[in-house]
Each structure stands twice: as structure tokens, then as C-alpha cells.
Amino acid sequence: MSMLRIATLGAMVAAASLQGQTVVQGAGATFPYPLYSKWMSEYQKVQPSVNVNYQSIGSGGGIKQILEGTVDFGATDAPMTAQERAKAKSPIFHLPVTLGSVVVSYNVPGVSASLKLTPEVLSGIFMGQITKWNDARLTGINPGVSLPATPITVAYRSDGSGTTAVFTEYLAKVSVDWKSKVGVGKSVKFPVGLGGKGNEGVTGLVKTTPGAIGYLELAYAKQNKLPVASIRNKAGKFITPSPEATTSAATGNEIPADLCMSITDSNGAKDYPIASYSYILVYENAKDPVKGKAVADYLWWAIHDGQKFAAALDYAPLPKDVLPKVEAKLKSLKANGQILITRK
How far apart are CA 137 and CA 114, in angstroms? Predict the structure, then answer.
């Protein structure tokens, strides 16, 4: 790119900065919201001229808003479908920025221990085939735990949700019954249970409903002091969700050109089986050069300096083999055809 074009872009950005703070608006996944909140507050300390706002409305909402052009970036835990991508006015990049675990949390009266769940039992509960906590299939894998006869109440997401997409993808991989009768997606018809909006809504249902069980992101369970289950992985090991077990699930996978990767039900003995990347969605060519530059710089900071905040909030930092791929995508972002990031 010529020095003149670089200077022109720089002048446009500088001119806008003189008018006041640059406000960047994002929306989407609730899954990474605790980490994104931390990033926004920390980034304003190092770049006070930029104010990043984010609405935690679910992956479906984030995809809808980026397609409609009402936000500067979207966020999703489930890659856009071919049909969704076809609606885009120009190419949209999926940028993995963090990883997390979808955990199974519960509220069983009198039980505070970490329960064990097999894929068969987990799918049986969410199919409505296992209806009481003292079912023999549950007590058999949890010896020494006194499980009551309390009815099981399933809690699921009522909104278009990347967390649901990850959870149902896992269930479809481990249960033929689930795959054929319920399927996979951001919105599916659950056979039983109550719906809650966002990870926040499912967390609230589990916390306030005796006998409830639901799926949510690990940070929400930890912040609300809810117990989480250990899940038997493909290697036959019961794994407690953690950033380390999430990193293990993401290690050694093939990285596709579009950076959209599934890491559910992976093969490693230390892998937590319901893990996922979370993606920021941005148009390859931004309409507004000032906001485009602000978003690109913010995301560059997030995949570098921002990663140090992940583990404390129960997310996993990007694997070392993925980071250069994300850097390359960011370096190709444009506004009006002009490259936004010129770092080597």
C-alpha cells in the first residue's frame, strides 16, 4: 500500500479522534461475556479514546445484527451457517479470540459433590428419559452419593444460542437418538424442560429451581457457586471442566482456512468433551474507516494482551498454533479497500 494511502487513512482516523471518543458497538454471544467485560474495561485504560460497548444477546442475535450492519462487530460460539453467510453483503471473518467450556450444572437438594455423568446419561436426561435424580443410571456412576428422588427439571436456552449449538453438537456426536430426534443448532426443540434467555437465564433457572440441571458456560457456574459435573470423555476419563482441560481439547487440531473449528468430543485423555472456540465476526472490508481501525486495534490487543485475563475468568487462552492464523486475518482487514493494521 502506498504511503499516500496510509497517510490518508491516518488522517481520517485522527480527524475523527479530535471530534471526541470513538464508540464501537458489538453484540452477540453470552458465553464469553464475562471475559469481554473485562477486556472492555482494561482496554479503555490503555486506549481511553476508544469506548467498546457489547450487548450480551446470544449468538443468534450477534449474527443477525452483523448481517444487518447495526453493529461494528458480532460474536458467536457457533460458526455462521452457509445460509447465514449467503446473506452477508461482503465477506465476514470468523476470528477465534478465546475458548471456554460448556458445563452441566445442577441444583440437587442435599448434594454438593461433583457428580459424574456419562454421555448416555446426559443425553438421557435431556431427552426426558431419565426423570428422577435417584435413577439407577445416575446412582450407578455416582457411588457414595445419596441422590434424592427429586424430579429432574431440564433448563435450556430459549434464545438463538451458540452455547446451545455447542451442547447439541456434542450430544449429537455421542447419541444417535439425540441426532435423529432433536438435532443440532442454535435453536432446537428440547423434548422437556424450561427455557431461559442467555447463559444468565439458564444460570438463574438452575440456581432457583430444586432438581434443575442445565448447560452454561463455566464462568457463570463459578460466579454463582453452582456445582458442575465431570463428564466422561471419548478416552473413558471423567474430566472436570477447567481452562487446562479446554486447552487440551483444542491442542493438535487441524486449523481450517476460515478458522472455524469444532473441538467437542475430542480424543485426548485430558480433554474436556464440551469445549468450544468463541468468535468475533467482522466484515473483511469495513464501511467506516475510523470504526474499522478501532475494531482492528482492539481485537489485536485482545488476542495478545487480553489473553492474560482469560484463565482467571475460567476461559482458555488461544493456542500458540492458532494465534498466527488470527493475526494474519486481522492484518487483512480493510476499510474502503485500505489495510487497517500494518504491523509486521
Answer: 16
